[in-house]
Design goal:
Elements: H1 3-19, E1 26-28, E2 35-38, E3 43-53, H2 65-82, E4 86-96, H3 102-118, E5 122-130, E6 136-146, E7 161-165, H4 170-179, H5 187-197, H6 203-211, E8 217-220, H7 225-236, E9 239-243, H8 251-260, H9 264-270, E10 277-281, H10 286-291, E11 296-303, E12 308-311, E13 317-319
Parallel strand pairs: 4-5, 9-12
Antiparallel strand pairs: 1-2, 2-3, 3-6, 4-6, 7-10, 7-11, 8-10, 9-11, 12-13
Bound molecules: adenosine-5'-diphosphate (ADP) and magnesium ion.
Length: 333
């Protein structure tokens, strides 16, 4: 069977089945934003890794090394945030063409260091190799959480309300603007491109949500709302009903979408790389969530029937299929 017909997540599931072994120390293994490993009866070690490949995740013709370093740290921090954890340590591995200037690599680590420091994590190791063609970055991030503080993808319950932090779609629109060679000068284009090149991981918000005990399930929006909501629903064995009109879209995205000739919601649903948090809250805990004062928007409800539906802007209910990024089904950038 070809990888293109199995898909990224089909492949991961096959790897999981082949290698699965029950262990009392593995609280959560493959399948969530980070693995949760028992260090003691109360303490959990979180471990996640994400790779960024030239030509797949970034294009050096429009990505500077400072932004690349910053984003490499941010996407990994985001997975710790999505578990409700505190980032602590990380390791970086690089595959570098010998022709790259040292100053570029230093710029990479200037960006990397800035985000790490902002979130209190420390770089403790890694690996450096030569690469033939493309620049390769792999980051492993370790974090911690109390056992009772973890928020997984698997605990959403029917009746929960679905919330998202911030605004969705900016990053995908920013990427499209970069590809079309749009001028960065203006504030609309500049902000969207900034959101794509330099995402902000929601580490503090990701921590406040579990500490207030208001969320049942959480994930970070890395592959697009449709795909990431699908993952919560699949792992929690529930469905969802989303209202397209309620999806938070920035003023900048609405303006740029006219120029890009796409409905703005398209970028939120299937774009990805927003690194906002998507989480579910039982109705009785919404007051607690509101007391946190976070910028969150309610976009729908978890349902018992295991299908995901979306009410479009004309009030029509349609199936909401995952259309986000799959490494073997599509190509990027
Ligand atoms: P995220 O988007 O949150 O980084 P992914 O969708 O990349 O998560 O991965 C989903 C889950 O599959 C994660 O728990 C990840 O650790 C696991 N996973 C992905 N690829 C592999 C692999 N090659 N081997 C083992 N586990 C993997
Ligand atoms: Mg994630």
């Amino acid at each position: 069977m070809k990888l293109s017909s199995l898909g990224e997540f089909g492949l991961i599931e096959q790897i999981r089945k082949m290698t699965f072994r029950r262990s009392p120390s593995v609280f959560i293994g493959m399948g969530d934003d980070a693995a949760a490993l028992k260090l003691s009866s109360a303490k959990i070690l979180l471990a996640t890794t994400d790779m960024l490949l030239e030509g797949i995740h970034f294009d050096l013709s429009y990505t500077d090394f400072y932004s690349l370093g910053l984003k490499s740290a941010a996407v990994n921090l985001s997975d710790i945030a999505a578990m409700g954890g505190i980032p602590r340590f990380c390791l970086t591995s690089l595959g570098i063409q010998p022709s790259i200037s040292v100053e570029h690599i230093k710029d990479f680590y200037r960006g990397f260091r800035a985000v790490l420091r902002a979130h209190g994590a420390v770089l403790v190791g890694g690996d450096t190799c030569s690469a033939r063609k493309d620049f390769v970055v792999n980051v492993m991030m370790l974090g911690e959480a109390g056992k009772t503080e973890l928020v997984t993808r698997a605990e959403a319950r029917p009746g929960d309300r679905i919330f998202v932090t911030g605004e969705l779609g900016d990053s995908a629109a920013g990427l499209e603007l970069l590809k079309t060679g749009a001028k960065r000068g203006g504030s609309v284009v500049g902000r969207l491109i900034q959101k794509h090149l330099r995402p902000e991981p929601r580490v503090e918000w990701g921590r406040k949500i579990p500490l207030s005990r208001c969320a049942h399930a959480m994930i970070d929006v890395s592959d697009g709302l449709s795909s990431d909501l699908f993952r919560i629903c699949e792992q929690s064995r529930v469905g969802a009903l989303i209202a397209a009109e309620k999806i938070p879209l920035s003023y900048q995205l609405r303006k740029a979408a006219v120029y890009l000739r796409n409905p703005p919601v398209h970028y939120a649903l299937s774009g990805g790389e927003d690194y906002e948090l998507l989480f579910t809250v039982p109705p009785g805990k919404i007051g607690k969530l509101q007391m946190l004062g976070l910028p969150v928007t309610e976009i729908g409800e978890i349902t018992r029937a295991r299908k995901i539906l979306i009410v479009d802007s004309r009030g029509k209910t349609k199936p909401f299929n995952p259309t986000g990024f799959d490494h073997f089904a599509l190509s990027r950038p």
